[in-house]
Amino acid sequence: MKNLKSIIRLTLVLFASFAFTACSDESEDIHFTKNEVIEGDILTGNQVSIPGNTISIYATMSDAVNVQNASGAISAVSKNENIATVSVVNASYNGEPIQNKGIKIHGIQIGETQIVVSDAGGNTATLNVKVEDVNLFWNTICTYKKTSLVEDEVEIEGIDETSAGSIRTDILSKKAKERTFIIKASKSFPFSVYKMQVLDKDEAILYELVGGTVSDSGYKFPLPSQDQSSEVKTYSFYEETNSSGKWLVEDISDDYKAQYPNAKVQLKMRINKQ
At the topology level of CATH, where does 30-132 sit? Predict the structure, then answer.
C-alpha cells in the first residue's frame, strides 16, 4: 500500500510538472492581440485575445494587430497578396528591437488568406484573415437629390459686389444641375466614420469625401488639396428649409480663400431628401 501511494504521489508530481511546463511554453509562444476598446471609442490600454485567431477586415481598408512574445525583430508575409497584404510596424527603432511590435493588414479583395509572422529566434505564428465586401462597412443615413429643373443659388458675403459677381458666375458655370449626395456612416468601428458620395445624373460616383463629422449644424468633410500641399480644404453642408422648399447648403469658401480671404461663399441647392 505504501508503494502504491508513493507511485501515485510521484505520478501526480510528474503530471503537475508537465502541465506547468506546457503552460509556460505556450505562454511564451508568439500570439496576436488587439487593443481593447470600450464604449465605442475609448482605448483602455489593455490587450484582448483574437477569437479563433481570425480577424475580418474590409476590402480597401486596413487593421492593426499586436504581436506578443516575439523575440527580437519580426517579419510578416501574406500567403496571398491578392487578398490581403501585410507590413510590420514598430519592429525596431534605430536598429534596436522594441517591445511594442505589430503588423498592419490591408484588404485587397474579398476572400481568405493567412499571415505568417516570424521572429529573430525562428519562431512563427499564423493569423487567419477574412476580407469582406467594403460596402458592408457602410450604412446609408440619408440621400439628397437635386434636379436640373431647379437653379442653384449662390450667397456671398465679405467682398464687393463686382468680385462676388465673378465668383457667382464661376460657380454656376461649373456646377452641374443634377447631383445626388449620399451620406453614409460606418456600421462597425471603434467610433463613427462618415462618408459622402457625390453622384452624377447617371448615378456614377464623381468623388467621395471620407472622414467627415456630423453634428446638429450639419456635415463637414476634409478634402486634401490637389497640388499635394499640406493645406486641407473643408467642405461643409447643412440642410435649410424655407418657404420655397428644402435646400442643401454647401460652404465652398475655401475654394476662393486664396484670392478672397474674407469671403464667405455658399452654394444653395434645392433638393429632395430620401
Answer: Immunoglobulin-like (2.60.40)
Spatial separation of the C-alpha atoms in residues 47 and 36, rounded to whole Å: 6
Tell me the three state secondary structure of residue 94: coil
Distance CA 47, CA 30 (A): 14
8 A C-beta contact, residue 42 and residue 79 = no
Cell 510578416 locates to 76
- Write out the three cell numbers for 172: 454656376
The vertex-221 CA angle with 215 and 223, nearest 5°, equals: 165
CA distance 255 to 175: 13
| Domain chopping of the chain, boundaries | 30-132, 137-273
Sheet holding 194-199, edge to edge: 153-157, 264-270, 245-251, 232-242, 218-224, 205-215, 194-199, 179-186, 138-146, 272-273
Q: What is the pLDDT of residues 160-175, one digit of tens each?
A: 999 999 998 888 887 7
- Asked whether the beta carbons of 213 and 194 are under 8 A apart, the reply is yes
Residue 124 banded pLDDT, cuts 50, 70, 90:
very high
**What integer is the mean pLDDT of 169-197?**
79
The model's pLDDT over 30-58, given as tens digits with 9 standing for 90+, comes to 999 988 777 556 677 788 899 999 999 99
Residue of 182, 185, 192 lying closest to 138 (CA atoms): 185
Helix H segments across 117-273? 161-174
Poorest-pLDDT segment among 42-51, 63-72, 251-260: 42-51
Burial class (CB in 10 A: 0-12, 13-18, 19+), 160: exposed
204 phi, psi to nearest 5 deg = -85, 140
